[in-house]
Write a structure and sequence with these properties.
three-stranded antiparallel beta sheet
Length: about 450
């Protein structure tokens, strides 16, 4: 920004320091909304919804200009949850990056990890073992169901269907139990690693997944019995928060919102990865382009995810879960122990008492990390909220030169004014909930 720019901007000031010119940019959204109107000629009310509000799906602020109950103008304000995940990842090794990206969209951690690791593996030019890829698909689809359950549960709460809140979180706990059995953690597991996964699925996790496959179809039917025929639910969602295909494409909106407008765009079908082209499943669509259509699409997507999980379970073949290249693979042979997660005792015995070379290799790989050839890639996958893309740039070192996430929550939030302006204040809640944003991903 030049000095000339600051003279015309009331919210940006500059000063010279020993490090150069420093700009101080302050907020101006409230003054911008308030200013320029004649209060005598124009009776209206400007209200803040959020950033601490139970119906904004996180710390999202909506500055709303009302005329009576009608929304004349709406401005989403983001950034309250900013954690600097992208920049932090650039100061860690490639493997350590998974512990950061998993915390972006905290309702879909497996997707963050998988997209990141697929990008690292593309830079490395390696293929992960078949069993590791199958487990990735298995865990992603379970995570998709868990994420949609939260979206459905919170939407139910915000619209008055409190029973849906209880049932949705109850059944999500089932999936989190599976994640805990598989990785030792319920959320932000860093389970997917460059080259494979952290550890194999234990037998009790496999048994619990099979139980879940039998249990969940009936639960989905219960949700529909509770909501689909409910006249209040229909009145609150049908024809509300309308956004057609052209609007979605203009704003870059993807995921269930786009498919509920009639376009069957799903990266698992259109740009397959992780072997999705070999799985038998359908892409649910609806032509309503409203909150009702998005609800129906997510319900059906959970059924399709169950189909994929069942197929993945049948494909689980005995085999390695990490690449054989010891210059890339995490050196410790991990096993689930009494403490939840620990190194194999045989491995510790070898590197500490039998092989100085193994100890040096372990130390270098853990502290410094492996090197990735210079280059840049962009890898997109189909996350619960739409296209999640990871852009990675390597300069040939042991950590990313640049890591950026194309996060669907951030992109989709552009649609909030489009679905809310001209409607009622009460429908702002419905429109925001139907987009299902997660602010951790938006403000990563």
């Amino acid at each position: 920004m030049s000095t000339e720019d600051t003279t015309t901007d009331a919210y940006a000031e500059s000063r010279d320091t020993t490090e150069g010119k420093v700009f101080t940019v302050t907020g101006g959204d409230w003054d911008t909304v308030i200013g320029g109107h004649d209060p005598i000629e124009d009776e209206r009310l400007v209200v803040n919804m959020g950033p601490q509000h139970p119906s904004t799906h996180g710390v999202l602020r909506l500055v709303i200009e009302l005329e009576g109950e009608t929304v004349r103008e709406l401005r989403p304000v983001v950034g309250y949850l900013h954690t600097g995940i992208e920049k932090n990842t650039e100061f860690r090794t490639w493997t350590q990056g998974t512990t950061f990206v998993t915390r972006a969209d905290y309702l879909a951690p497996i997707f963050n990890e998988t997209a990141y690791c697929l990008a690292v593996e593309k830079l490395l030019g390696i293929e992960v073992p078949e069993r590791a890829t199958t487990i990735r698909v298995l865990m992603m689809e379970l995570n998709r169901i868990a994420s949609h359950l939260v979206g459905l549960a919170t939407t139910g709460m915000e619209l008055g269907a409190l029973s849906m809140m209880i049932y949705g979180f109850r059944d999500r706990e089932y999936i989190l139990d599976i994640f805990e059995l598989a990785s030792g953690l319920r959320m932000n597991m860093a389970y997917v690693r460059p080259g494979g996964i952290a550890q194999d699925l234990p037998d009790d996790a496999i048994s619990k997944i099979r139980d879940f496959i039998e249990y969940m179809p009936k639960a989905l039917k219960d949700y529909e019995n509770l909501l689909s025929g409910n006249s209040i639910w229909q009145e609150r969602t049908q024809g509300v928060a309308y956004l057609d295909v052209s609007g979605c494409l203009a704003l870059g909106v993807t995921g269930p919102v786009l498919r509920a407008a009639g376009l069957p765009w799903d990266l698992r079908k259109t740009m397959p990865y992780c072997g999705y082209e070999t799985y038998d499943f359908d892409v649910p669509t609806h032509n309503g382009a409203d909150a009702w259509g998005r609800y129906l699409c997510r319900i059906e997507e959970m059924r399709q995810s169950l189909r994929i999980v069942e197929q993945a379970m049948d494909r689980l073949k005995v085999g390695p879960i990490m690449v054989e290249d010891k210059k890339i693979a995490w050196p410790a042979q991990l096993s689930l122990g009494g403490d939840g997660l620990g190194n194999s005792l045989n491995h510790v015995k070898k590197i500490m008492g039998e092989s100085m070379e193994s100890l040096i290799h372990h130390f270098k790989l853990v502290t410094e990390g492996f090197r990735v050839p210079a280059g840049q890639v962009y890898v997109p996958i189909e996350a619960p909220r739409g296209e999640l893309g990871v852009h990675l740039v390597s300069d040939g070192g042991t950590r990313p030169y640049r890591m950026h996430m194309r996060e669907p929550s951030f992109i989709n939030l552009q649609a909030v004014p489009a679905v809310a302006e001209g409607g009622l204040l009460a429908d702002v809640i419905v429109g925001g909930a139907s987009l299902d944003p997660v602010m951790g991903g938006c403000d990563r």
